[in-house]
Amino acid sequence: MELLYHAGFCTPRFPSWIPDWITNTPRQTITTWPSKPYGFSACTQVESEIRLSSKDKSVLVAKGYIVDKVNKVGKTSFQTSDRLLYLQELSSFILSLTSYPTGESLNDLVWKIPIGDSIEPTSTTGVKVDFRAAYQAFTEYLQLGTQDTDWKMEILQARAMAKIKQFLFRPQELRQLLWPYLRTALDFAERFADARACITQNEYIGILPGTAMNGDFIAVLHGSSVPFLIRKSDKRPGHYIHLGECYIHGIMQGMPETRKLKQTMIRLH
């Protein structure tokens, strides 16, 4: 399972379920993200059933569920676009809905989803943060016409100078409030291979790896902490390509109606 958390299709040299640590720098997975209430546990209540195919050792066979389908993928790439545009697109996806499958308020989801419903900021200042208020400060700050701020550079400078506390207490009250929220949202996005926003067929909002396309599937495997993004293989009927782990708000602590889902053996190559 650990291989799947780190893997995602990037080169035809390897099966998609094998991490390519030769050309890619290992990154933290979202499985360790401090989300409410006790971290992610999409299907950890069930023991994993995962093995190599007896007929083809390049194929990994895992028992699980295909729980949803990607209906719309964001156009804004986290790695190649302005970070604020990524966050704004994610917010617009949420507010385009009339309701949410979990019954949560959309006004709460606009600040919860970008930070993976984190229980704490990723900064090490020890300052207690009201994420709702921090998000409100963030949106107000954007309305002041400061969208051209290079946040990535500000973050790098703050880290390099080891003066996070000084940055937090700049005279601008809004910056003081929004910084922990923005830092946490960007740190969460950096755990994906080029994060993009998405809406699923069942109208869940999530964050996917940048290779995502409309029509890809969301799978939850037995024993897995998080869902995975998979795509039907063009080369092998009945098989899938593993694209990476994903965040789908509302199923990270388990699907509410797993009894209605059909268990299946998912073959990854």
From TrEMBL:
Under InterPro entries, the record lists: HetReg/Transcr_Mod
Protein name from the UniProt record: Heterokaryon incompatibility domain-containing protein
Q: Which organism is it from?
A: Trichoderma harzianum
